[in-house]
Specification:
It is built from 20 helices and eleven strands. By secondary structure, it is α+β, with helices and mostly antiparallel strands. α5 packs across α8.
């Protein structure tokens, strides 16, 4: 029985890149042997165990055989005669097929170290094409290491395209699409994830609403991009600079789905709902994306809005009860504004709306109640006082 550190931990150690994940492969063991040593079985599809002290994952070396479509269409074979090289061969990229033994020696049967040095993302074997999730993973790795100069090998990109053409990508399940998308949105160059999916044709299958934006020209010649898709990616880049949160980046990216609608369909967020439903995006992601799509234009011109519209904006974004989501909304709007104006020094509308919210929150509710007002009368008086406070914030030059 021998244990090897594999995958991301070895890859990032050789790169000098921060990594928190540790995956281990055990060669020459059986489930009975693992359990006898105190390892706790947790794998549903194949033998994976938690270390009794560190709780890190240890998987028995295995091979796999394609038996159906998609991520789950495999049977696995685990036995004491499976070698480390056998196990590494089934991995996606050469840079993920490197192992380290207990003495710190590197085992690299598929030249992953060479590809690390040359900054290439290359598949290990033709078996790559059997799992459509690998399309998403490669796009995610491209987003993670883009700033280091990594690129996808031409033969790997060609294989990804063939997987889309053959229909293998159509068997991706929503949960896996969301998991990889969420992780990719947290990477350094999140926009590269979308670019790679579009380059191999997978974006049209997975996120068709986004893909269509690249065919929609921007009418304003002063905009920094020629089509709505490219403009959306510029806003994602700005969001990535302002926040590491995938939630902020996701909502910012999707705002363009509303911008691509004909004028008579303004604020129709059906495309966002359809996309979120297809990839099983969590409720908070969907809610923020819808708010940003509906109200980012209002936010940009908040200082010139009538007090009634400012109050409507605060109410519709639920700023009084959910201040953190309101801050997220403002951050998304700032990202969009910066994608249109790279020289923007400070996003003043956010300051104005924060002031308006604080002014409204400072209203003495007990004083209103002391007037004997209840129900609708109480609400009407509160709104009237809110409007008065907002009006007082208006600068003379904005009248």
């Amino acid at each position: 029985m021998k244990t090897f550190l594999v995958g991301g931990a070895v890859r990032d150690k050789l790169l000098g890149y921060p990594s928190s994940e540790k995956d281990w492969v055990v060669v020459g063991a059986t489930p009975k042997i693992m359990e006898a040593q105190g390892f706790v079985p947790v794998g549903k599809d194949f033998p994976v165990f938690l270390h009794p002290q560190t709780r890190e994952e240890y998987a028995l070396a295995r091979t796999e055989r394609k038996t159906g479509h998609g991520y789950a269409g495999f049977t696995f074979y685990c036995a004491e005669d499976i070698t480390l090289e056998d196990d590494l061969r089934r991995r996606d990229l050469t840079i993920n097929a490197i192992a380290e033994d207990a003495q710190g020696n590197i085992i690299d049967p598929y030249n992953g170290r060479r590809d690390l040095e040359q900054k290439i993302l290359r598949h290990v074997s033709p078996a790559f094409a059997e799992d459509p999730v690998r399309i998403l993973r490669i796009a995610r790795f491209a987003a993670r290491y883009h700033h280091l100069g990594f690129r996808i090998a031409e033969e790997t990109l060609a294989l990804m395209r063939s997987m889309v053409v053959s229909g293998e990508a159509d068997h991706l399940v929503a949960e896996r699409v969301w998991k990889e998308t969420q992780r990719a949105l947290g990477e350094t160059s999140a926009d590269v994830f979308i670019r790679v999916l579009r380059d191999c044709g997978a974006l049209a299958r997975i996120l068709p609403e986004l893909d269509r934006l690249f065919e929609m020209p921007v009418q304003d010649a002063h905009q920094p991009a020629a089509d709505l898709g490219s403009l959306a990616l510029l806003s994602l880049q700005q969001a990535s600079q302002l926040s590491p949160d995938p939630l902020i980046r996701f909502a910012t990216l999707l705002h363009a789905l509303n911008d691509g609608l004909p004028p008579h369909l303004d604020n129709n967020t059906s495309a966002i709902h359809a996309l979120c439903e297809r990839i099983a995006a969590p409720k908070e992601y969907r809610e923020l994306a819808v708010l940003v799509a509906e109200f980012h234009v209002h936010c940009h011109c908040a200082q010139t809005l009538e007090p009634e519209m400012v109050l409507t904006l605060l109410l519709r974004t639920d700023a009084f009860r959910r201040p953190q989501r309101f801050e997220n909304f403002l951050l998304c709007c700032e990202s969009i504004a910066r994608s249109h104006d790279r020289a923007l020094a400070h996003y003043l509308p956010a300051d104005f709306l924060r002031e308006a919210l604080q002014a409204c929150l400072a209203i003495d509710l007990k004083a209103i109640a002391a007037q004997g007002l209840t129900g609708k009368a109480f609400g009407d008086e509160l709104d009237q006082q809110r409007l008065t406070h907002i009006q007082q914030l208006r600068k003379p030059e904005t009248h």
